[in-house]
Amino acid sequence: MAASRMDLDGRPIKPITICMIGAGGFIGSHLCEKLMSETPHKVLALDVYNDKIKHLLEPDALPWAGRIQFHRLNIKHDSRLEGLIKMADLTINLAAICTPADYNTRPLDTIYSNFIDALPVVKYCSENNKRLIHFSTCEVYGKTIQSFLPKDSPLRQDPAYYVLKEDVSPCIFGSIEKQRWSYACAKQLIERLIYAEGAENGLEFTIVRPFNWIGPRMDFIPGIDGPSEGVPRVLACFSNNLLRREPLKLVDGGQSQRTFVYIKDAIEAVLLMIENPGRANGHIFNVGNPNNEVTVRQLAEMMTKVYTKVSGESALETPTIDVSAKEFYGEGYDDSDKRIPDMTIINKQLGWNPKTSLWDLLESTLTYQHRTYAEAIKKSMAKPTSS
């Protein structure tokens, strides 16, 4: 396998060992699948939970047996972390609190998780001359310049004022009392620290800025594969409403605009970063699909249509309801208006472009969610009741 695989410059790809922090999550599980099924690389999979990668760990007869090891640990307080980073050629850090409802209700946890807890990872990689791929977020851009222009300004139609570029666009956050920006600010600061480690101490790094990666196993369905109480991100929120036959809640009318990219497309981009260090090191990459842009209201409408198709259920008479941000998220919430990624750098360096349409990625995701929910309900009904 190794001899037949080439990088983008025609060189054979050598097997490496990857320390993946947060391997048990949505992105980590898909990346582990990709690495096991298509590459010769080894993975040291670090996480608190392994539910989403159990199918890769058992049984021992799997073709990749021995190439993936699960280490149950929390990077906040585990002395094994540096040793595992030393054992690997590359560390991928996916660990984060990245649920919008937590940003203004748990701002301290959000800041500690996304900045303080990441500091040892960066430090160990730098001190031990290990390459780092760090997952940041498109939220580091904050609000667009367009959002500050008058409503009737012709400049609002100029992409220069709203398309987000890694090397040009400013990072504009709301006021300090708007604690929703605790996540974006912590993520931006760790990016700056990583960049500084590269400039001053020679750390080999790549920073990934995901733009709404969507697909099976994303976020959670409250009470089924996640906590009973909780507010996941927008697509999982809408999935949950559809599964439970509830109206979809549109925060402040659902006017915010977002782009969505299929997880399998995005993982292709990450694999290119892993296997082409000469082209990826020192770069920050937007990874999204600017062709899949919709308002949150349009997303709700499309998801309702897709779910009707995959489930065979009719749509509700009142499919959506409007709620205020304060009512939905609590005090201190604020939002960005548009998130459209510029793809120039990743296309130039890695030749990557997303392929999957919004309808197709929603169909794949909702088919999975519907099946998972049905299985969970069936299982709960089969449990014997206590007398």
Automatic annotation (TrEMBL):
It comes from Gossypium stocksii. It catalyses: UDP-alpha-D-glucuronate + H(+) = UDP-alpha-D-apiose + CO2; UDP-alpha-D-glucuronate + H(+) = UDP-alpha-D-xylose + CO2. Belongs to the NAD(P)-dependent epimerase/dehydratase family. Its EC number is 4.1.1.35. Its cofactor is NAD(+). One of its GO terms (cellular component) is cytoplasm. PANTHER family: BIFUNCTIONAL POLYMYXIN RESISTANCE PROTEIN ARNA, UDP-D-APIOSE_UDP-D-XYLOSE SYNTHASE 2. It is an enzyme of class 4 (lyase). Coiled coil: none annotated. This is UDP-glucuronate decarboxylase. Residues 18-288 form the NAD-dependent epimerase/dehydratase domain. InterPro entries: Arna-like_SDR_e (IPR045869), Epimerase_deHydtase (IPR001509), Lipid_A_modif_metabolic_enz (IPR050177), NAD(P)-bd_dom_sf (IPR036291). It is found in: Cytoplasm. It holds the Pfam family Epimerase. One of its GO terms (molecular function) is UDP-glucuronate decarboxylase activity. SUPFAM superfamilies: NAD(P)-binding Rossmann-fold domains (SSF51735).
